Amino acid sequence: MTEPLLKVQNLEAWYGESKALHGMNFDVQPGELVTLIGRNGAGKSTTLRSIMGIVGKRTGSIRFDGAELIGKRTFQIARTGIAYCPEERAIFSSLNVAENLTLPPVLKAGGIADAELLRQFPNLQRRLKSQGTKLSGGEQQMLAIARILRTGARFLLLDEPSEGLAPVVVKEIGEQIRQLKSQGFTILLVEQNLSFARKVADRHVVVENGKVVDTLTNSALEADMARVKTYLGV
Amino acid sequence: MTRILLLAALAVVALAAPFFVYPILLMTILCFMVFASSFNLLLGYAGLLCFGHAMFFGTGAYIGGWLMKEGGFSIELAFAATTLAMAALGWVVGLISARRGGIQFAMITLAISQFVYFLLLRAPFTHGEDGLQRIPRSDLFGVIDVSSNLSLYYLILAISVAAIWFFYRIVHSPFGEVLRAIRDNEGRVESLGFVPERFKIVALTLSAGLAGLAGAMKASVYQIATLHDLSFHVSGTIIFMALLGGLGTMAGPMVGAALIVMLNDHLAQFGEWALIIQGTVFLVVILFFRRGLVGELQAFIRRRSAKA
């Protein structure tokens, strides 16, 4: 097995006085697509936010490409080659689609050029002059994913990209994510939609009460759906 | 095309105006338009409420006035030096305050402005409560006489147009886009790899430079610089101007500045009642024109064109 691209060890995180992560341990191999699955409030999104340094306090170790991320500020983490697409999408409301798309800086070589992004996300091409927040939920999600690809980051943190979207749009997002994986991106995906997760992921990390309680390959997940549904409470 | 026609009409009005309206009033409007634009850059585009913005305006008035009176500077050099000095002050204020946002940023800038106020009150060159009086209108480039109201008006007009064009270029540049993004969601901007406080410091530096220029121009117009120019009252007035016209719109705060200066001019005869009337106008705007006059007009035009 190769050296993991991301290695999280004993990660603990707090929101103010409230402890949200209680010693997370998992890793992600280069080129792999791993999902964090679990119930609401299990700590999946907090894990992504902790990797990006957005939570108030965090301890433990997050090693990315050999470098320790704990102690680094968010912009420094972004510059190591990690891009984050938050759950709320965070489209800049006062910028139009073109501006939202071209705003992120090119931090490393190898980012996707603007023309290529528009070819890959054709829905955005038609809406370039529209305000970012006037787009449909699906288009906003496409924009949120597309704009982080120009930075040159090769490791993507995607937080529930299928949330609140129509099935046809979820399918489209799934295809985009698969294409990103085939382009060599390593992806850590937070997902509650199990059917979506198993169509795109290689491996699933089950999170409960701020801890990893199980890790399943895609085939193991298919074979033991009953156990996974117990974890998710569905 | 409509835009070019509108700008041409504005140019004609601006050039002809001093023959119909008292030039001092027109120059005051221009100074406050530049000042309001500088404030708009911070609050309207970067989301930073500088509660002591008059410190740059008032200190600029003192420095510009002193350079012309005691330093023997020509008027354009005095303006340029003041702009640079105030930009430097803005940079220092930015270094102190840019890591903070919201109410903390507002309070830090207010505290610094109070500090600057008392510093200037004690500084010998400001002449304390008397202010710096009889500031000469130095020759332009050392040779062109701008001591008359009419000639000074055209100089102030030219500098104001240049300053507003500079402001326009800032907010329509990629830098301006990042500022707007910071206003929308600072955390998200940082997670994209930007360092938001660096942008905020540059915004404060540019804004302070413009405010200082406005202050120096005002000192040359009235030929006096006083502590009132950097008082909390002026900081409050500039917020009112920006809100009245419409924050985050290019023209809004400038329109607000023009309206308030004219309103104050007309209401001067009513003494303290002027403040009550001003307060009432403020209340009406806050309640019924939340986007400000220009903001509401733009929204109305957008709605009309969406229906069409």
Automatic annotation (TrEMBL), chain A:
<keyword id="KW-0547">Nucleotide-binding</keyword>
<dbReference type="InterPro" id="IPR003439">
    <property type="entry name" value="ABC_transporter-like_ATP-bd"/>
</dbReference>
<dbReference type="GO" id="GO:0015807">
    <property type="term" value="P:L-amino acid transport"/>
</dbReference>
<dbReference type="InterPro" id="IPR003593">
    <property type="entry name" value="AAA+_ATPase"/>
</dbReference>
<keyword id="KW-0813">Transport</keyword>
<dbReference type="GO" id="GO:0015658">
    <property type="term" value="F:branched-chain amino acid transmembrane transporter activity"/>
</dbReference>
<keyword id="KW-0067">ATP-binding</keyword>
<comment type="similarity">
    <text>Belongs to the ABC transporter superfamily.</text>
</comment>
<protein>
    <submittedName>
        <fullName>ABC transporter ATP-binding protein</fullName>
    </submittedName>
</protein>
<feature type="domain" description="ABC transporter">
    <location>
        <begin position="6"/>
        <end position="234"/>
    </location>
</feature>
<dbReference type="InterPro" id="IPR027417">
    <property type="entry name" value="P-loop_NTPase"/>
</dbReference>
<dbReference type="GO" id="GO:0005524">
    <property type="term" value="F:ATP binding"/>
</dbReference>
<dbReference type="GO" id="GO:0016887">
    <property type="term" value="F:ATP hydrolysis activity"/>
</dbReference>
<dbReference type="InterPro" id="IPR017871">
    <property type="entry name" value="ABC_transporter-like_CS"/>
</dbReference>
<dbReference type="InterPro" id="IPR052156">
    <property type="entry name" value="BCAA_Transport_ATP-bd_LivF"/>
</dbReference>
<dbReference type="Pfam" id="PF00005">
    <property type="entry name" value="ABC_tran"/>
</dbReference>
<keyword id="KW-0029">Amino-acid transport</keyword>
From TrEMBL, chain B:
<feature type="transmembrane region" description="Helical">
    <location>
        <begin position="26"/>
        <end position="56"/>
    </location>
</feature>
<dbReference type="InterPro" id="IPR001851">
    <property type="entry name" value="ABC_transp_permease"/>
</dbReference>
<dbReference type="GO" id="GO:0015658">
    <property type="term" value="F:branched-chain amino acid transmembrane transporter activity"/>
</dbReference>
<feature type="transmembrane region" description="Helical">
    <location>
        <begin position="238"/>
        <end position="261"/>
    </location>
</feature>
<keyword id="KW-1003">Cell membrane</keyword>
<dbReference type="Pfam" id="PF02653">
    <property type="entry name" value="BPD_transp_2"/>
</dbReference>
<dbReference type="InterPro" id="IPR043428">
    <property type="entry name" value="LivM-like"/>
</dbReference>
<feature type="transmembrane region" description="Helical">
    <location>
        <begin position="77"/>
        <end position="96"/>
    </location>
</feature>
<dbReference type="GO" id="GO:0005886">
    <property type="term" value="C:plasma membrane"/>
</dbReference>
<protein>
    <submittedName>
        <fullName>Branched-chain amino acid ABC transporter permease</fullName>
    </submittedName>
</protein>
<keyword id="KW-0472">Membrane</keyword>
<feature type="transmembrane region" description="Helical">
    <location>
        <begin position="102"/>
        <end position="120"/>
    </location>
</feature>
<keyword id="KW-1133">Transmembrane helix</keyword>
<feature type="transmembrane region" description="Helical">
    <location>
        <begin position="140"/>
        <end position="168"/>
    </location>
</feature>
<feature type="transmembrane region" description="Helical">
    <location>
        <begin position="199"/>
        <end position="217"/>
    </location>
</feature>
<keyword id="KW-0812">Transmembrane</keyword>
<feature type="transmembrane region" description="Helical">
    <location>
        <begin position="273"/>
        <end position="294"/>
    </location>
</feature>
